[in-house]
Amino acid sequence: MGYTLGIDIGTFESKGVIADGGGRIVAQAATPHRMIVPRPGWAEHRAEEDWWGDFVILTRRLLAESGIDPAAIAAVAASAIGPCMLPVDAAGAPLMNGVLYGVDTRASAEIAELEATIGAERILARCGNALTSQSVGPKILWLRRNRPEIWARMARILTSTSYITFRLTGAYAIDHYTAANFSPLYDIGRQEWCFDLADICPPEALPRLMWSTEIAGRVTAAAAAETGLAEGTPVTCGTIDAAAEAVSVGVRAPGEMMMMMGSTIFIILVTDRALGDARLWHAPWLFAGERAAMAGLATSGTLTHWFRDQMARDLPKDGAFATLAAEAEATPPGARGLICLPYFSGERTPIHDPQARGAFFGLDLTHGRGEMYRAVLEGIAQATRHVTDTYAEAGAPPARVVAVGGGTKNAVWLQATADLTGLRHEVCRTSVGAAYGDAFLAAVAVGMAGREDIDRWNPVAHAVEPVARPEYARQYPLFRALYAQTREIAHALGAGGQDAV
Asked: Can you state the percent helix, strand and coil of the chain, rounding each to 5?
């Protein structure tokens, strides 16, 4: 029997699985790493240690624990956080830490300049996406202007997945789904790189475009020696982690939505057309002829970690979340009038405001930690409702929602999200996530499975039904108003408190 290997590199943790041809997981493993925040608004990973290093650790562990002959691995697929920006030299060696996705807001000035020079409408029409902190193009321009010593040595710009693919195969490749986040360097209509909108980088600096289940190359002798894989094993082009996670839970038809409740919220809705709404992100889906519209919050699971570390120092770290969850559950919906704006790292969709700031509003001397933690979870859910409202306003309300990620294990968070959005949230049997989707994509790539087989690989296990709560009906408009009425204050505070680059 053949097997496939899937590895996913996340924001704080990497996971891997080996699955057989029927979708049974025969081995799984995880390893942590940290996100580097050298200054406010910046977010980085070490490409060699965190991306490739985790891939090597997990692959060797999976092969050892499963006892599977490496030659029995029919194909390998990887996914990773994205879109990221990593300059490498002519030998493919990283020249700096990888700059992360939309949580890194360092290129705000470049975004404003490119938008003013090119025109927001022209960018949206050509690239399918407005320029935001999620866009890689402005971050490349930031590199060119602020790190000339690195720019002089730069041969190529990679992202997290394409760096892993390069280390495995020696090929420079990127999938269309990831490339669509390189605005203003990707033409979404022609599905090819474009360089006429702005002088940002030379054409030869960007990887070759492919579809996610195309084979980018085969494991080299050097990569085989490091990972324990068999030389010559096929390697797919790969994709961003959220896309692999959507695949892992059977999201594939127009109207189907994946809601990833992890370090950040990331949402993918498969669509039958381009929505053309600047508040959302748009891309070709993983397969030719298909489309998707995405959204994401900047801080969600990351905010719960912040709350634990700052407000629950008296609790043992390994049991702190369980205690906090119990305290939140003992608090009534609405957190007794407390509202949390979850914009602790700015915000991505739909407001696209890197200077937005977090806040607790409505505190009085009767509030305690339970109310505050419940307000955090409900604030994330309210921001998620803002996103699902935006999809509906764009003419694409979700017909089905599948929830994934660590947040699905938090009953208060998941129920509040269902209640506020008014949408039933399904949860599938296997919760490994993107790594499992990677293993499935690898199986599809080499003909071991068809796309429809994911329903057999990973059926729905249970669902959370929405409850109409008057507390949320009253509070949600106040949540929206709180941001609108404090926006200028947040921007003024941000303008006076940021370090210069």
From this structure: 40, 20, 40
